[in-house]
Write a structure and sequence with these properties.
The protein is of the alpha+beta class. The protein has 23 helices and 10 strands. It has 3 domains: 181 residues, Hypothetical protein af1432, CATH 1.10.3210.10; 141 residues, Beta Polymerase, domain 2, CATH 3.30.460.10; 92 residues, Ubiquitin-like (UB roll) (Roll). The longest helix has 35 residues. The structure holds manganese (II) ion.
Length: 508
């Protein structure tokens, strides 16, 4: 028997699996023992047994609520690639489904990065995602553990791995709504990719840290009292400090002026129902003056990745400003675990919650979810053949354009932060930060863009190059004989708008 490090006990993982059956426990244990034996002669850069990595990857998957099949595949994810276990062996020992997942992860792992690695790896990632989202979850868990241990990797490799994490994996975690994973990946990669910016950001925050903590503690106490007085004796409250990388991105947009960052720290209030969220918001606003324009209702208008919450920023009364985020327990779980919470959560899709946009999105992605495995009470892990729209869009876009443009388009359109603006009828249009009415018009329809004569934002006429802000109501005026102007290319942010404008100019 090979001894593993003392902290890697399979029971730690089994405890994390909700209502596991005997069959589930047997499967996880078998995969654990198999991986430990198969990798027994292998060590990591740190000198630790390689098995530590497999154990931690499987554990992360369990923490994210993934089912026994995915956890087992997590244990086995390097067996084919690293120690030459044959696919036949995995099929015989663990069955077709686990082999499919392990081979999926193996394919992703075979990407060797050359000068054009970015596009290439993205493409392979998307193909893999299109086949089965669980492959991607395993890859993300694998990457998270590799990032947690990046310090022991040779220096020349560190930067490449960290840059890839920042450009590929963290944004994907964000798009899948897995906030916790997105934040951790970003913050682990940040110091390796941008050491100077990291240092600068760290120093900026350090100066504020102490007063921030004091303010926050004081406000937190008062908030709890107000909530109890308002009938919320059981509301849960907690702090969250903005991730360093996320703060850095924001600072860059704000001339590195920390005073302009209003959500440096936030207080979370978790209540029982949607109605309670609005009631709690009322309590907060009755006690503290809100900053105008900072009240965001992501419950009525969820972010495209499914995030829901009420946000408001209030004056604390002692010179400070703090963001308060109010949500239900279910919204909180979704914000932390995103798509993973739907892959695993039994009742999630069975409640007839058809109006819920995230659920619809996940349903499209995962037609098999919600089916229970017969009899044993574990969560069904069906094979998901369907693909979410945004991934389809990426694939279509890539087919229609060159690789370079694809890459640019990705960075510009899909992976940047978005703003949400409205048509006069109240339809939501999401656009990249710094978009203009030109982008808005082309996002509605190319004909509207091509015949745009003017734009109104919140009822006022504006120039076409004005920068749109969250929650603006945008109205496009058109004229039959109006046509695009050459300058519009520079004033447009989205590659979609630029493309249509160039085409229209060429036709003339
Ligand atoms: Mn691995």
């Amino acid at each position: 028997m090979v001894s593993a490090s003392s902290d890697s006990k399979v029971s730690e993982i089994i405890e994390l699996v909700k209502s596991s059956s005997e069959q589930d426990i047997a499967l996880i244990t078998k995969a654990h023992d198999f991986a430990r034996e198969a990798h027994k002669d292998q060590v990591r850069f740190s000198g630790e047994p390689y098995f530590t990595h497999l154990f931690q990857t499987a554990k992360i998957l369990a923490e994210f609520g993934m089912g026994p099949i995915t956890i087992a595949a997590g244990f086995l994810h390097d067996a084919i690639e690293d120690v030459g276990v044959t696919p036949e062996t995995i099929r015989t020992e663990f069955g077709e489904e686990i082999l499919f997942l392990v081979e999926g992860v193996t394919k992703l792992g075979q990407i060797r990065y050359t000068s054009n690695w970015h596009t290439e790896s993205l493409r392979k990632l998307f193909v893999a995602m299109s086949q089965d989202i669980r492959v991607l979850m395993i890859k993300l868990a694998d990457r998270l553990h590799n990032m947690r241990t990046l310090a022991s990797v040779p220096q020349e490799k560190q930067k490449r791995i960290a840059a890839e994490t920042l450009e590929v994996y963290a944004p994907i975690a964000y798009r899948l709504g897995i906030g916790r994973l997105n934040r951790e990946l970003e913050d682990l990669a940040f110091p390796f990719v941008y050491p100077d910016a990291y240092e600068e950001t760290r120093q900026i925050i350090e100066k504020r840290q102490e007063e921030l903590a004091l303010d926050l503690e004081h406000f937190h106490e008062s908030l709890r009292i107000k909530l109890v007085e308002g009938g919320f004796a059981n509301a849960e409250t907690s702090f969250r400090v903005k991730g360093l990388y996320s703060l850095y991105k924001k600072l860059k947009r704000l001339d590195m002026d920390i005073e302009k960052v209003y959500d440096l720290s936030a207080l979370r209030v978790i209540v029982g129902s949607v109605a309670d969220c609005y009631k709690a918001l009322g309590i907060v606003h009755a006690a503290w003056r809100p900053l105008p324009g900072r009240i965001k209702d992501f419950i009525a208008f969820p972010k495209p990745n499914g995030y829901q919450s009420l946000h408001t920023t209030v004056f604390t009364g002692d010179g400070g400003i703090v963001e308060v985020q109010i949500r239900t327990r279910e919204m909180h779980r979704e914000a932390e675990f995103g798509i993973a919470s739907h892959l695993s959560y039994k009742q999630g899709l069975a409640k007839g919650d058809a109006a819920h946009p995230t659920l619809l999105w996940v349903k499209r992605l995962l037609p098999g979810v919600g089916e229970q495995a017969a009899g044993n009470g574990s969560v069904a892990e069906a094979k998901y053949s369907d693909v979410p729209g945004w991934i389809k869009e990426l694939v279509e876009y890539q087919k229609a354009h060159g690789d370079k443009e694809f890459e640019e388009g990705l960075k510009e359109d899909f992976f940047r932060e978005r703003i949400f603006v409205f048509t006069p009828k109240g339809d939501v249009v999401d656009l990249p930060v710094d978009s203009t009415p030109i982008d808005f018009a082309y996002a509605i329809h190319s004909d509207i863009g091509n015949h745009m004569s003017g734009a109104k934002v919140n009822g006022k006429l504006v120039s076409l190059d004005s920068i749109l802000k969250n929650a603006d109501i945008v109205e496009i005026q058109t004229k039959k004989n109006a046509k695009p102007n050459r300058k519009w290319v520079d004033h447009a942010k989205t590659s979609m708008a630029k493309k249509h404008i160039r085409q229209a100019l060429l036709k003339e």
